[in-house]
């Protein structure tokens, strides 16, 4: 099959091709009824029931493809978007300093960058400054002028640029001033096994992602500061090829996420106790209340956060609710803001 020809007219949706976000992304797509088959591990898969093509890319590359308008939608980590944006600021600063960029260039250019559509609620981690547990460093400032290993080069540069400016008494620098600044600190780009850099004598400290912290501890490291807190996000191009389809996919994914967080709680209660009951189950917007054939009684239906449901059921029982039922929600759709 000639995939290139089949891509015409399809919205391009980038998802991580491997790593910690992949399985959660696939589950999300399934919940949103985005049906596809990835043939022989190809990096492009045509969606069967919608005019969409999924493009499997490294998570670190997705903000670039979305930001340049090569694809319309993408799922990646907030940390990767921040790293991409920091890189863009560095390039822009270099062009301005060399005289290669003017305001007119910006006016003529296609909109660059990506917009965050929503947080997806998985893939939580932190980009942290880490040092040997038995070392001499206790704060980020202790690493000024030292060697830092990282795959997040641009964020690390901005982090240490800010520390160096603070050391010089300049505390109000904005992101554009930090980008591309000549540093005393040496940032060493590493593509993998960053946690081994200190033990191997390559770096005095590192800037790397931490999920559970087990890898960091096993490498004899401890975190002394956090650069960025991250989780998976849905991003879109500033100039998508099909804005209506982008909105449709965003609504479907939003419905799946809501369904994952909530259950539907239904119960009967005397009308005289309704006010107390609905304080316990106010719902996302408001509970649904229906009169029963039995005089003075009503049926109530409300969405409740899964993590609260046991306590909610206890409290409902206390105020006299009966016949309490909890139902799973497989998908939902709310009104657009």
Question: Describe it for me?
Answer:
With 337 residues, this protein is α/β, with parallel strands linked by helices. It folds into three domains: 1-121 and 230-256, D-Maltodextrin-Binding Protein, domain 2 (3-Layer(aba) Sandwich); 123-229, 3-Layer(aba) Sandwich (D-Maltodextrin-Binding Protein, domain 2), CATH 3.40.190; 261-326, Alpha-Beta Plaits (2-Layer Sandwich). It is built from eleven helices and 15 strands. A six-stranded mixed beta sheet has the order 2-3-1-4-11-5. Strands 8-7-9-6-10 form a five-stranded mixed beta sheet. A four-stranded antiparallel beta sheet has the order 13-14-12-15. Strand 13 and strand 14 (297-305) form a beta hairpin. It is an enzyme of class 2 (transferase).
Largest sheet: number of strands, sense, barrel closure:
6 strands, mixed
Q: Roughly how much helix do the residues carry, as a percent range? A: 25-40%
The computed structural class is alpha/beta
Q: Between the first and last Cα atoms, what is the distance in angstroms?
A: 41 Å
β-strand percent reads: 25-35%
As for the number of domains, it is 3
On the 0 to 100 scale, the average pLDDT is 89
Radius of gyration: 25 Å
Outline type:
globular
How many H/I helical runs? 11
Low-confidence stretches: none
What would you call the quaternary organization? single chain
CATH topology of the largest domain: D-Maltodextrin-Binding Protein, domain 2
H/E topology pattern: HEHEEHEHHEEEHHEEHEEHEHEEHE
Number of DSSP strand runs: 15
Q: Which architecture name of the largest domain does CATH use?
A: 3-Layer(aba) Sandwich
Class of the largest domain in CATH? Alpha Beta
Strand order of the largest sheet: 2-3-1-4-11-5
- The CATH H-level superfamily of the largest domain is Periplasmic binding protein-like II
């Amino acid at each position: 099959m000639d995939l290139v020809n089949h891509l015409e007219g399809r919205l391009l949706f980038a998802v991580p091709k491997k790593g910690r976000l992949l399985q959660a992304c696939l589950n999300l797509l399934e919940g949103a009824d985005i049906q596809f088959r990835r043939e022989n591990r190809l990096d492009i898969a045509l969606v069967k029931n919608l005019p969409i093509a999924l493009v499997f890319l490294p998570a670190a590359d997705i903000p670039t493809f979305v930001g340049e308008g090569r694809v319309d939608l993408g799922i990646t980590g907030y940390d990767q978007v921040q790293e991409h944006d920091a890189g863009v600021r560095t390039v822009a600063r270099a062009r301005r300093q060399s005289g290669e960029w003017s305001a007119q260039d910006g006016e003529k250019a296609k909109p660059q960058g990506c917009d965050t559509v929503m947080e997806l609620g998985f893939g939580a981690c932190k980009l942290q400054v880490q040092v040997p547990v038995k070392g001499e460093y206790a704060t980020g400032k202790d690493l000024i002028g030292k060697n830092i290993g990282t795959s997040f080069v641009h964020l690390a540069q901005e982090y240490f640029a800010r520390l160096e400016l603070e050391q010089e008494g300049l505390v109000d620098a904005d992101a554009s001033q930090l980008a591309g600044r000549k540093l005393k600190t040496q940032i060493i780009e590493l593509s993998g096994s960053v946690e081994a850099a200190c033990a191997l004598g390559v770096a005095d400290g590192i800037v790397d992602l931490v999920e559970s912290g087990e890898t960091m501890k096993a490498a004899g490291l401890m975190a002394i500061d956090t650069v960025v807190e991250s989780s998976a996000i849905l991003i879109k191009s500033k100039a998508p090829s099909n804005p209506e389809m982008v909105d449709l996919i965003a609504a479907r994914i939003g419905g799946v996420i809501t369904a994952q967080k909530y259950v539907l709680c239904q119960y009967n209660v005397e009308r005289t106790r309704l006010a107390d009951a609905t304080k316990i189950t106010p719902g996302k917007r408001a509970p649904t209340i229906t009169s029963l054939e039995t005089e003075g009684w009503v049926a109530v239906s409300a969405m409740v956060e899964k993590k609260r449901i046991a306590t909610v059921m206890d409290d409902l029982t206390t105020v006299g609710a009966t016949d309490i039922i909890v139902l799973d929600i497989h998908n939902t759709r709310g009104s657009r803001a």
